[in-house]
Write a structure and sequence with these properties.
By secondary structure, this protein is mainly α. The chain has 3 domains: 3-42; 46-78, no CATH class; 82-169, no CATH class. The protein is 51% helix and 2% strand. Helix 1 (3-22) crosses helix 2 and helix 5 (95-110) packs antiparallel against helix 7. The chain is elongated. The relative contact order is 0.06.
Length: 169
Amino acid sequence: MGRTALNGIGSTFKWLGKNAEMKPWTTIFVSVLLTTVAAMGMPKIYVETDSYELWVPKSSVAYKNYKHITAEFLSGNRGVVILYEARDGGNVLREEYLQELLQIHVNFTESTYGVVENPPASYQTCCNRADVDLPCEFSNVLSVFNYDSTQVEVSALMKTRNKYEPLLN
């Protein structure tokens, strides 16, 4: 910055300081008035927190699907959480418990809902998807086994065998 700009800023602050010293009540009144005028818009402020609204393009298929889900089902994404505990208090990653979890998953995803629709709505038609061509979104331990009971059995067999023994069918 040039010397004249610095002198201008310095003289402005000097003038403000002198006026605040000479007219303290006027300074207080003007400060409170400006703060009140600036705060009058606060009740109308809206802070967007929805990540779809902030980051997903409005023309994308994912955004259109999201708007459809929120319009049709009101509460947006409805997550389902299933808490599972082994009956003996042990590890739920044992084969018998994984098979039971897989059966719960199959029962949940293959069930149908409602009696009015023809055909009735199912989990596959109502689940959250990023795109209509993509599968439903899941987040659980069974995805490691590709939701396949034979892969759960092979995994359990591999744990019990000698690591140098070939895996036989």
